[in-house]
Write a structure and sequence with these properties.
The complex is a heterodimer of chains A (760) and B (79). Chain A is built from 23 helices and no strands. Chain A has 760 residues and is mostly helical. In chain A, helix 8 runs antiparallel to helix 14, helix 13 packs antiparallel against helix 14 and helix 16 runs antiparallel to helix 23. In chain B, helix 1 packs antiparallel against helix 2. The chains are: A mainly alpha (760), B mainly alpha (79).
Chain lengths: 760, 79
């Protein structure tokens, strides 16, 4: 933007300059023009730049509103952009949480099944079996599954109940076998009630074991009773039905026989040409046979009806037994059903046989009727021609006249002609008759076929159902046997486990008891040892104490002697140190003291054995020994001259040491005013290392008698100031050293003297 | 004494500058009269040279303690 501005200004200026000539005035004008022109273009440029920046910022904000990642990036990179974004857009949305696809359904189902199983566990076993029974009549596949589930649930219960009452599960497993048969023998309302109980399973609590056993026993008995009653019922019904059916079949057979006999006799009667009296006997016999047949047919019919009624009753009884749903009764029910079915089949077959016989008989009777009719007709004709002739005309051949014979013969011829004619007619109509007869026959056959097919289908269906039931029964028995074996195995495993657990427990308890015994034993031992040790220790202590006292007394006596010697020496030392101190005081104002040599020599002599004093005596600087040291007062006086000079050369050091710097330094010293004396702080900071400050601190400390601190502060000077103060510093050091050593010596002498004076 | 050293140096400086200035003046006059037809500038030149030499001498004298010698052996002469 600046460049643009500059360019704009330059171009404008150049244009203006190029446009004009050299003279100053136009240049001035030009200058004003350029300033004006550039002012407007600058304004434009400023506006454009403002617009660009605003656009950029707005665009950034809009895009950040749309893309949260971009917003996060910008916030990270540009410091206060998050506040701007917060103002403009509101707080940033948190990153979306990815929910894992929750497998709720299978979990719930499995948990529900678990819950169902678990809730079933605390129930009594008969309820479990009750739950088993309602499902027994359903599809066979879920039934074995559920029995297995229940078996596993039961087993789990058995295993979990170990810690509580070990005795219960064992009889329970054996009872489980007896439970299923009796369990189902309760009446239907009881079954319904138990079923509703099953539904409310989670609400029912566990019953006590004794009650369970009692109930089980009770139920066993009741079921047994029911089973016996049912079986007796079935047997009775079966017996009666069988009897009746046999009767019916017998009756049918008799009817069949009668019909057959009658038919035979009829045919015989038709075809045989017996003498009239035999004929009448024959006819009578026929009549008897007919009556016999009709009677027997009626009897058979009645017997069939009765048998059918009995069969229905039996069927009803079987259904009732099925409703009761007892497993053990099922084979008997199945057998009864089979019997029923066979009886029905037999009955039906016999009935069909009777029916065929009857139809045959009908044909034969029709035939006989026709023959009779023809005979009657002939007789009538004969009577019409020869009314005198009786029925038995065979024996009357001698009585007949020629005319009669002729008329008879003519009649016979006429009859024969007529017959021939009829025969021819019949022959012509034969085909039609046959067709119509065939049609009729077909219809009848179809009807008969349908009936036969339906009965056969019924029989087959019944057969298959019975077979299916039988198979179901077999599989159920197999499953029951398997379950029993598994349960037995579980019981065995349980007893083994119990045995193992008991063994382990026994071992644990034994080891615990042993441990306790050992620990108590050891405690007692340690106690005894401790007591003996204490006794020993106390005795030793007494002995040591006595010995120590003896020793102490001896030492005290010795030390007395030593102490007196020491006292003498200390006194001597002290005297010599006092002499040294005195020499220190001989300093004149500007001259050093006398050389300290003599006094130090005296000290050295006085304390020949004292190493500390010797060391201290040799620690004195040689200068003080040979030349002496200056006093504090002289040093103080000298300091002021030093201070003045140091102030003057404050600016001079290794880098700045030209003459000009000297001039400047002098100027600074003249112009700068600091306190004459300023109390130095406990700690020197960086700005305290200024020359002037240091000098004022040193002056203060000197005025207050602290030469050491003053020397330390002067030691902090740098550059030329330091060089100026070097000698003073050295003298100060010497004085301080000497003073220190002397004070040490006097302190030592005092201490020694004090120490020795304490002895007596 | 170290504090008296500076005073001594300054005395030396002054003395030296007086000598140098004088010598410079003298030589300047001589040269001006003899060689440069009594122009003023040789005098000024001479004075200037003298002043400069005196300045430099003074400065060197004052700087002497801060010069780093090649030989480590420092011989400090005290008065």
């Amino acid at each position: 933007m600046l460049r643009v501005c500059l360019k704009g200004a330059n171009s404008a200026a150049r244009k203006c300059l190029c446009g004009n000539g050299v003279p100053l005035h136009p240049l001035q004008q030009c200058r004003s023009y350029t300033s004006g022109g550039s002012g407007s273009s600058a304004g434009k440029i400023v506006a454009a730049s403002v617009l660009t920046v605003g656009g950029g910022v707005g665009g950034t904000i809009l895009y950040a509103n749309w893309d949260p990642k971009f917003r996060a990036n910008v916030e990270k990179s540009i410091p206060y952009s998050d506040q701007v974004f917060g103002l403009a857009l509101g707080p940033a949305a948190p990153p979306p949480v990815i929910n894992k696809p929750r497998k709720v359904e299978p979990v719930q189902i499995s948990s529900m099944s678990e819950m169902w199983k678990d809730s079933k566990q605390p129930k009594a076993k008969e309820v479990e079996k009750k739950a088993e029974q309602p499902d027994a009549e359903g599809p066979p596949a879920p039934a074995p599954q559920e029995t297995l589930e229940e078996a596993s649930a039961q087993v789990a219960q058995i295993l979990s109940a170990i810690g509580e009452v070990p005795s219960v599960p064992a009889p329970g497993t054996h009872e489980a076998e007896a439970v299923p048969p009796p369990a189902a023998l309760k009446g239907v309302p009881a079954a319904a009630a138990k079923c509703t109980e099953c539904e409310h399973e989670p609400a029912v609590k566990e019953r006590p074991e004794g009650e369970v056993a009692a109930r089980l026993a009770e139920q066993d008995k009741a079921e047994q009773d029911l089973l016996t009653s049912l079986s007796s019922n079935l047997e009775d019904a079966l017996g009666s039905t069988a009897k009746v059916t046999l009767q019916a079949i017998g009756a049918q057979e008799a009817a069949l026989q009668a019909i057959a006999q009658h038919t035979r006799q009829l045919r015989e009667a038709m075809e045989a040409e017996a003498p009239p009296d035999k004929k009448s006997t024959q006819w009578r016999v026929l009549e008897d046979a007919l009556s016999e047949r009709s009677r027997s047919v009626d009897e058979a019919g009645a017997a069939v009806l009765k048998a059918k009624a009995e069969l229905d009753k039996l069927r009803g009884v079987i259904d009732g037994a099925k409703h009761l749903k007892i497993a053990a009764a099922r084979p008997s029910i199945l057998a009864a059903e089979e019997n029923l079915h066979s009886m029905v089949v037999d009955l039906d077959s016999v009935v069909t046989r009777v029916q065929t016989a009857q139809s045959e008989a009908k044909i034969v009777s029709q035939y006989s009727e026709l023959v009779n009719e023809a005979k009657a007709q002939f007789q009538k004709e004969l009577n019409s021609i020869t009314p005198e002739i009786q029925a038995n005309w065979k024996g009357l051949t001698g009585k007949l006249t020629q005319d009669d014979l002729n008329s008879l013969i003519a009649h016979a011829h006429r009859r024969i002609d007529q017959m021939n004619r009829e025969l021819a007619e019949q022959r012509v109509r034969e085909q039609i008759h046959i067709d119509s007869a065939l049609e009729q026959q077909k219809l009848e056959d179809k009807k008969a076929l349908e009936v036969a097919v339906s009965t056969a289908l019924e029989h087959n269906r019944e057969q298959m159902r019975l077979e299916q039931e039988k198979k179901v029964e077999e599989t159920r028995e197999v499953m029951e046997a398997e379950m029993r074996t598994q349960l037995r195995r579980q019981a065995a495993a349980h007893t083994d486990h119990l045995r193992d657990v008991l063994k382990v427990q026994e071992q644990e308890l034994r080891s615990e008891a042993e441990e306790i015994l050992n620990s108590s034993l050891m405690e007692k031992e340690t106690e005894y040892r401790r007591l003996t040790q204490d006794q020993l220790d106390s005795f030793t202590l007494d002995m040591n104490a006595a010995y120590a006292r003896l020793k102490g007394m001896e030492e005290a006596i010795d030390s007395h002697v030593i102490a007196e010697e020491e006292a003498r020496k200390a006194h001597q030392l002290w005297l010599s140190v006092e002499a040294l101190n005195y020499t220190l005081k001989t300093a004149a104002l500007n001259d050093p003291t006398e050389p300290l040599e003599g006094a130090v020599q005296a000290i050295k002599e006085s304390c020949a054995e004292d190493e500390f004093a010797q060391a201290l005596a040799t620690a004195l600087p040689s200068e003080s020994l040979s030349r002496g040291v200056y006093s504090e007062a002289s040093l103080r006086a000298r300091f002021y001259a030093i201070r003045q000079l140091a102030r003057r050369v404050a600016l001079i050091d290794e880098t700045r040491n030209s003459l000009y710097q000297y001039f400047l330094s002098y100027l600074q010293a003249m112009l700068l005013f600091e306190k004459a004396q300023e109390a130095p702080p406990a700690k020197l900071s960086a700005e305290d290392l200024d020359t002037f400050k240091l000098l004022s601190y040193a002056a203060y400390s000197l005025e207050h008698g602290d030469l050491e601190l003053a020397a330390k502060l002067v030691n902090q000077l740098k550059g030329e100031s330091r060089r100026v103060a070097q000698d003073w510093l050295k003298e100060a050091r010497l004085t301080l050293e000497t003073k220190q050593v002397v004070s040490l010596l006097s302190a030592y002498a005092n201490a020694v003297g004090l120490g020795t004076t304490m002895a007596p | 004494m170290s504090e008296k050293e500076l005073g001594k140096k300054l005395d030396r400086c002054l003395a030296d500058s007086a000598v140098k200035l004088g010598a410079g003046l003298g030589l300047g006059i001589v040269f001006s009269v003899v060689f440069f037809k009594r122009h003023t500038w040789p005098v000024a030149f001479g004075l200037g040279m003298g002043l400069g030499m005196a300045y430099t001498n003074c400065q060197n004298d004052l700087r002497a303690p801060y010069l780093i010698q090649r030989n480590i052996k420092v011989i400090a002469k005290r008065q």
